[in-house]
User: What shape does this take?
Amino acid sequence: MSSRVVVGLSLMLLIAGAGALSAAITTGQKKELNAIKVEVGKLTPLITKKKLEEAEQAIAAAEKRLEEYVKAEEIPENDSTLKAVRQLLEKQKAAFVKAGGKVEVNEVSFTDDVAKILTAKCVGCHSNDPKGGLRLDTFAGLEKGGANGPLVFIGKPQQSLLMARLTTPNAQLRMPKGEDALSAEEIKTFADWITSGAKFDAEDKNSPLTRLEKPKPAVMVAKATGDERVSFIKDLAPGFVQTCQRCHNGNNRQGGLSMVSFEKLMQGGDSGKVLIPGKVDESKLWKLIEEGDMPRQQARITRKWYNDLKIWIEEGCKYDSPDPKAELAKLIPTDEEIKMAELAKLTPEQFAERRLTTSEEQWTKTFPQVESRHVSTAEFNVFGDVSEERLKQVDTWAGEYAQSLREMFAAKDTPLFRGKLTIFVFKDRFGYEEFNQTIHRREVPREVVGHSQISPITQEEAFIALQDVGDAASENSPGMQLNLMEQLAGAFLKRESRENLPDWLIRGTGLALGAQADLGADFVQSQRKSVGGVLQNARLERPEQIFESGTFSPTDVGPVGITVVEFLIKQGGAAKFGQFVKRLQAGEKVDAAISATYGIDGKTLGLAYATTQAGSAGGKKSKK
Assistant: This one.
């Protein structure tokens, strides 16, 4: 059976050097210390013969005798005789361990013991603008060390710089500088902590020492079934974050209670759990709220939140999210997510009915005295003040162009837009401008004859608006079919985009697809011819600016858009262009998407594109 010995003051030589000078001990005191030294010397045969149990008992007895005598007689720690006794005792302990004896180390808590000494004696000089580059106001700073290297050699206090600086007899080098040396008990705390592994027993190494929090035991989490009347995430989490976390957050835990996550909320605070599932009257949090003691600082909760909390506790404090450790602030659904959840509950028929009703309302709001005509088919609602035949024609064209988009982007959705896409057609300029002013509250340039409006992801809104410019295209007019193709493609690109797409991409994709279908040939040709002048007048500082949104005016973005899209398709084919678009829709930056798709950076690709357009500089000049 292996023996164990309790480590006492493990750094007696260091501690002795740190003590204050005092009067020499008496002859009698020296005699007793030497007697103890003799007893310690007698341990050698026991350890050599590996009589470890006897050695353990003898070491413990000698150490107890020594400490009791030193305390009773107030022997100064720097006395040379005492140093000699302790030095021999430490040597015997080391031999005991080497022979196979087990050392039982006094466990020291960093949070409860070490941090308090650091805060009181060290943080004043080692926090902001720290001496020697050493911060001691967090465990992370202590762990990192300073200009002279690491402070702690785990398991070996004798080799740790921290202990050397605390115990050196040189007052100029000893810490804390200009103050009294730490007491023997304080130094022992550091020594025992290092010997036992220099463990960190709180949650966050970067947390200020004054705010350290020990991990609380895990809690049982009751998972929601979906049948509950109150959702924690939807109904309660916003209140906990916006109101309660003012006093119960990561940095400010009044009463030891944090509400940063569901787990921390259920763990409770210094006085124990604050929520007892199924038992409202036994839940301390409920009592504090009911009695008006919470929330404080003029914060207010709504009557609904108050009632929801009571129901939620009665229903068992169920949690309706996967990770109870997750920050509540990150779990609260956004307006978009709430809207998505609401729309997700609608059947295709309900969504389509909703879209039709909304479109009728938009028309009536714009033209309260003008009755609209509309045609509804499998994919589209076509509204307008043109003839019914024209509406049907537009619907037919839209169906053909939707198929082209499916083929280019490998889309399988039918219909292409959830709840159908509404197409507004206005017979003249007045109607188109009136719609923009009423619905969007904006003026539109004369050259703009169509636009799209899509709610990304949710598709809550999904419509395009077109001025009927007639079927014949010219250098200045795209013609109705190309106008429709351009806006339909723009709407399609926006429907899955989490970020705003470049304006040249939205315009250029539709124009390029229209050109492939031989739509608006004269207009397309004039756009291509004018791009050289546009690039000349732009005076770009960087080639990659070509691919950035907002670089070109509404007049100039068309020529750039169609030629850039055609250039990209030529570089890698339609499939690779589709991959590029998907990266942008996912939120990737343009330059990163170019690099990932085409294997070169935006600057190189911009130069290559500009080179291909150099011959068109004599064409139509930009109005920019």
Q: What stands out?
A: Confidence is low (pLDDT under 50) at residues 1-22, 617-624. The chain has 24 helices and seven strands. The two ends are 93 Å apart (CA to CA). The first strand starts at residue 4 and ends at 6.
